[in-house]
Specification:
Helices cover 51% and strands 7% of the residues. It is mainly alpha-helical. It folds into 2 domains: 4-50, Rubrerythrin, domain 2 (Single Sheet); 63-405, Orthogonal Bundle (Citrate Synthase, domain 1). The protein has a 3-stranded antiparallel β-sheet. It has a 3-stranded antiparallel β-sheet with strand order 4-5-6. The radius of gyration is 23 Å and the shape is globular. The structure holds carboxymethyl coenzyme *A. Carboxymethyl coenzyme *A (CMC) binds at residues 230, 233, 264-266, 268, 293, 301-308, 357, 359, 362-364.
């Protein structure tokens, strides 16, 4: 018999099976807990709750290990490109040459967006945050492709939706940016590789030929790969829970974009650069800001530090820190906030407060400095995170459908009033 967990409640013993993952992670299966004991589990913020069995991403927060479909993140970031990683996450295996060519071609075929999307875009004030614009544009795809709403859509319809999303997302992101600048939009160019095409749509000026620097497209490929999936984080869990109601892929991804927007999640990359700029404007005294982050009466947190699951170096942060030095050097960019970031990191890693709580730099600590060197404006940083995370969200939504997971519906411990009688307004 497989290993069991024994739980004793009121002197009575109950046994529950223990599930073991491929990397020997253990989980107590409490699916029958309420039926057998009358109790539920209480775990605010899902800190110790496994919500699914997934074969997509493995993460060991104590060891600082991350892999997609078994491939270490370090190898993928160094040797692969974003589209290949997207294919791997979504379909489970690295593509053959022919599979890659077909995937790439289909993405090129679908990268244009319906001209009516411009009317939707025109409805937003130019000062709108691009994350809000992006989530609305993605959700608008449900109107252009209503067949995607069918909860029993065929595999072909689902696959078409997947291809459309990967193909149209860069166009939508770039159009949201152009709109915020009051400039005409650029159309996708088939012959350009995914990241180069994105940079063209972002920055080409109709009166000039825009050459994409290979240093820039390589850097972007690396950043997007590092963001491509991260198992059951806040936005991915949102995509899965929305998808579990049989909502469409577009609706689920749109919800994920909104979850990512918050400053404790993907929004942290914008917050980090704003924090570094503020520290610099304040004279660059990093000790003062470290002290603020430690002060429990001050709401300031060192943005880009700490993680729910990493209690060691975030492997993505290691890769990004190195890439940051390389890319800035190759592009000849000297951003003074880089030395402030390094000083903060060094001070925090030696400080008892951060050491005790196992707070290390996360993926967002250095990524904004690279985005800025690539010319991406600060309010677009979280949108870049969304562009990278898209294949992960899609893979997780697809897995949920394929394994026929039931609707997600947590329980609660009610702590409100006991039953009481209604009091008419005049007697209150
Ligand atoms: N600066 C100062 N103190 C911190 C920080 C920080 N950045 N992060 C955590 N702490 C402290 C926190 O105050 C708490 O202290 P105490 O035990 O004395 O109450 C302790 O460390 C544990 O923190 P927590 O908030 O209970 O941990 P959590 O797992 O709920 O939160 C987190 C994780 C990422 C939200 C948090 O570390 C944080 O707010 N970091 C800054 C925001 C950030 O960089 N977010 C990006 C995360 S990585 C990208 C992504 O995948 O989303």
């Amino acid at each position: 018999m497989s290993e069991q967990a024994e739980l004793i409640i009121g002197g009575k013993s109950y046994n529950f099976p223990i599930l073991v993952g491929t990397e020997n992670e253990k989980a107590i299966d409490i699916g029958k807990l309420r039926d057998t004991t009358g109790c539920i589990t209480y775990d605010v913020g899902y800190k110790n709750t496994g919500v699914t069995k997934s074969a997509i991403t493995y993460l060991d927060g104590e060891q600082g290990i991350l892999s997609y479909r078994g491939y270490p993140i370090e190898q993928l970031a160094e040797k692969s490109n974003f589209l290949e990683v997207a294919y791997l996450l979504i379909y489970g295996e690295l593509p053959t040459k022919a599979q890659y060519a077909e995937f790439d071609k289909r993405i090129d075929d679908h990268s244009m967006i319906h001209e009516d999307v411009k009317t939707i875009l025109d409805g937003f004030p130019s000062y709108s945050h691009p994350m809000g614009v992006l989530s609305s544009l993605i959700c608008s795809l449900t109107a252009f492709y209503p067949e995607s709403l069918n909860p029993n859509a065929s595999e072909k319809v689902i696959n078409d939706s997947i291809i459309r999303l990967i193909a149209k997302m860069p166009t939508m992101v770039a159009w949201a940016y152009k709109k915020s600048k009051g400039r005409p939009v650029n159309y996708p160019i088939r012959s350009l590789e995914y990241c180069s095409n994105f940079m063209h749509m972002m920055f080409a000026n109709p009166t000039e030929i825009y050459e994409v620097d290979p240093v820039v497209s390589d850097a972007l490929n690396k950043l997007l790969i590092l963001h491509a999936d991260h198992e059951q984080n806040c936005s991915t869990s949102t995509v899965r829970i929305v998808g579990s109601s049989m909502a469409s892929l577009y609706g689920s991804i749109s919800a994920g974009i909104n979850a990512l927007w918050g400053p404790l999640h993907g929004g942290a990359n914008q917050e980090v650069i704003e924090m570094l700029d503020a520290i610099m404007a304040d004279g660059g005294d990093t000790k003062k800001w470290i002290a603020k982050a430690k002060d429990k009466n001050d709401s300031f947190r060192l943005m880009g530090f700490g993680h729910r699951v990493y209690k060691n170096f975030d492997p993505r942060a290691r890769i990004i820190k190195k890439a940051c030095d390389d890319i800035l050097e190759k592009l000849g960019v000297n951003d003074p906030v880089l030395s402030i970031a390094k000083e903060l990191e060094e001070a925090a890693l030696k400080d008892e407060y951060f050491v005790e709580r196992k707070l290390y730099p996360n993926v967002d600590f250095y990524s904004g400095i690279i985005y800025r060197a690539l010319g991406i404006p600060t309010n677009m940083f979280t949108v870049m995170f969304a562009l990278g995370r898209l294949p992960g969200w899609i893979a997780q939504w697809k897995e949920l459908r394929e394994t026929k997971e039931p609707i997600g519906r947590p329980r609660q411990v009610y702590v409100g009033h006991n039953s009481r009688n209604y009091v008419p307004m005049e007697s209150r």
